[in-house]
């Protein structure tokens, strides 16, 4: 199984953060229920846990890189893909930051319209340039 399938699952799980009060207790079961196992299952668990552990810093990074937008006005799916992208750029040492950026933008193209995907690309490029 490819990592992009696991990354897609992580996006879908992260999308649900604000919809469940017991999200931190539920996400591992969501991964198990998906049928993703082995290396990709571990990637999914590690990534969701990493996002949760660093959520405040990730959201602050997003807010610091917004130009002309308020975080609260962003759609839930854009926030989810930005959280995943920022995590992979800044915290995931298993993949190069540029790969994390490109994969997040690819997800944005899948789940958003072109305007939102361009927005995600621009914001994550700003984050990337500050990290490298």
TrEMBL record:
Which Gene Ontology BP terms does the record give?
A: DNA-templated transcription termination; transcription antitermination
| Domain annotation NusB/RsmB/TIM44: ranges | 6-129
Keywords of the record, alphabetical order, are: RNA-binding, Transcription, Transcription antitermination, Transcription regulation
> What does the record give under GO molecular function?
RNA binding
Q: Name one GO cellular component term.
A: cytosol
Alphabetized InterPro entries for the sequence: NusB-like_sf, NusB_fam, NusB_RsmB_TIM44
Name the SUPFAM superfamilies on file. Answer: NusB-like
Output the Gene3D superfamilies linked to this UniProt entry: NusB-like
Membership in a protein family: Belongs to the NusB family.
Q: Which NCBIfam families match?
A: nusB
Identify the PANTHER family for this entry: ANTITERMINATION NUSB DOMAIN-CONTAINING PROTEIN, N UTILIZATION SUBSTANCE PROTEIN B-RELATED
**Functional summary from the UniProt entry:** Involved in transcription antitermination. Required for transcription of ribosomal RNA (rRNA) genes. Binds specifically to the boxA antiterminator sequence of the ribosomal RNA (rrn) operons.
* Name listed for the protein in its UniProt record: Transcription antitermination protein NusB
Q: Which organism is it from?
A: Anaerofustis stercorihominis DSM 17244
Its gene is: nusB
């Amino acid at each position: 199984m490819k990592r992009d399938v696991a990354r897609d699952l992580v996006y879908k799980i992260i999308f649900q953060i604000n919809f469940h009060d017991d999200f931190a207790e539920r996400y591992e079961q969501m991964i198990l229920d998906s049928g993703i196992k082995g290396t990709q299952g571990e990637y999914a668990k590690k990534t969701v846990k990493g996002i949760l552990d660093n959520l405040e810093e990730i959201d602050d990074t997003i807010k610091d890189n917004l130009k002309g937008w308020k975080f609260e006005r962003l759609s839930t799916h854009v926030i989810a893909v930005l959280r995943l992208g920022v995590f992979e750029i800044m915290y995931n040492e298993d993949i190069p930051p540029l790969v994390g950026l490109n994969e997040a933008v690819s997800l944005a193209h899948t789940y958003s319209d072109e305007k939102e995907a361009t927005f995600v690309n621009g914001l994550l490029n700003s984050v990337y340039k500050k990290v490298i």
